[in-house]
TrEMBL record:
Source organism superkingdom: Bacteria
Organism for this UniProt entry: Paractinoplanes ovalisporus
Family matches, as CDD domains: HypE
Record-annotated PurM-like N-terminal domain positions: 50-161
Lineage: Bacteria, Bacillati, Actinomycetota, Actinomycetes, Micromonosporales
Stretches of the chain forming a coiled coil according to its record: none
Domain PurM-like C-terminal residues, every copy: 174-319
Protein name (record): Hydrogenase expression/formation protein HypE
Matches recorded under InterPro entries: HypE, PurM-like_C_dom, PurM-like_C_sf, PurM-like_N, PurM-like_N_sf
NCBIfam families: hypE
Record family assignment: Belongs to the HypE family.
Pfam family, one: AIRS_C
Length: 347
């Protein structure tokens, strides 16, 4: 039996003896759940990254798994099918790996139209082909009507990490430039626009895309890339806070340099959301030494998925473990880790 009183983290998890939506949001509640429930149960205490890097004869393997419960299953720019493939490919790529193989498992609710399942399977096949990976194994389970919600997809992926590559959150260092590959918040807003029937001044479509080609181009610059992260659940805010805490460095952002497109800005103003906390599915953050930033930015901008790349901040010695943004008015604000889920079921 779990002893909630001996958990060390403060509210809200201690006073939540049952699972709530915020536990799956990629923010503070998700982190507390992993740290205080899952890791002790597994007997593990490890640096948490998008994928695990493990030695094997002749090199290193990256391994990752993820589950997708997005609602609706089809949205502007994609579906749960290509999202599942691209998400796992990207988790492998954030350790510098070249993705090779995927598994795909379906959990289907009784009564789901087979035509919808077929559309999702076709999207998975097309996305895997486009990413150059093979779906090599899978599974299917069916739950009775009312026990699920259409289609849930679980994927796992394996890739190979090149020799000499060491990319992980703890390597962020004071003086690093923080780069982003393009506009933020578009996936979360694209899903929410369909779910809520919202229309904005400009069309917003999901940015779901495989990023391993972009990562490969970055690594070919032969610079010392310290950290890569795709800011999915919890958005840029969650990713930067996790990295700052893992490396015990401060993160300083310039708010006016954040690439927030008009449609995302409109949606966030209407819904009271912070664009930094809205999910992305085709963007990456890169931490590199400041001297290497121009070279890495040039390589990113030469790739179709990095044309909007720019520097958005730096790592500093001040305020270790915290993310601070300088506002357009010259003040500063603390960019906090999201507690739960701003937009539930977006991936």
């Amino acid at each position: 039996m779990l002893d909630f009183e001996n958990w060390t983290c403060p509210l809200p998890l201690r006073d939540t003896p049952t699972v709530v939506m915020g536990h799956g949001g990629g923010g503070a509640m998700s982190g507390e759940l992993v740290e205080h429930l899952f890791l002790p149960a597994y007997g593990k205490s490890a640096e948490l990254t998008d994928s695990a890097v493990m030695p094997f004869p002749g090199g290193r393997l990256a391994f990752s798994t993820d589950s997708y419960v997005v609602k609706p299953m089809f949205f502007p720019g994609g579906s749960i099918g290509d999202l599942a493939v691209n998400g796992t490919v990207n988790d492998l790529a954030m350790s510098g790996a070249r993705p090779l193989y995927l598994s795909v498992a379906f959990i289907l609710q009784e009564g789901t139209p087979l035509a919808e399942v077929g559309r999702i399977a076709t999207a998975i096949g097309a996305a895997a082909s486009a990413a150059g990976v093979q779906v090599v194994t899978g599974d299917t389970k069916v739950v009775d009507s009312g026990s699920g919600d259409g289609v849930f997809v679980n994927t796992a992926g394996v890739g190979v990490v090149p020799a000499g590559v060491d990319i992980r959150p703890a390597r962020a260092a004071a003086g690093d430039a923080i780069l982003i590959s393009g506009d933020i918040g578009v996936h979360g807003v694209a899903v929410m626009s369909v779910r809520s029937g919202l229309e904005f001044s400009t069309a917003v479509t999901s940015d779901t895309a495989p990023l391993h080609g972009l990562v490969s181009d970055i690594l070919e610059t032969n610079t010392d890339v310290h950290v890569l992260r795709d800011p999915t659940r919890g958005g840029v805010s969650a990713s930067l806070n996790e990295i700052a805490r893992a490396a015990q460095v401060g993160v300083s952002l310039i708010e006016r340099d954040l690439p927030v497109p008009a449609g995302v800005s409109d949606a966030c103003s209407l819904l009271g959301l912070d664009p930094l906390q809205v999910a992305n599915e085709g963007k990456l953050l890169a931490f590199v030494p400041a001297a290497d930033a121009p070279t890495v930015l040039e390589a990113m901008r030469a790739h179709p998925y990095g044309r909007g790349a720019r520097q958005i901040g730096t790592c500093v010695n001040e305020h270790p473990g915290m993310v601070v943004a300088r506002t357009a008015l010259g003040g500063t604000r603390v960019v906090t880790m999201p507690i739960g889920e701003q937009l539930p079921r977006i991936c």
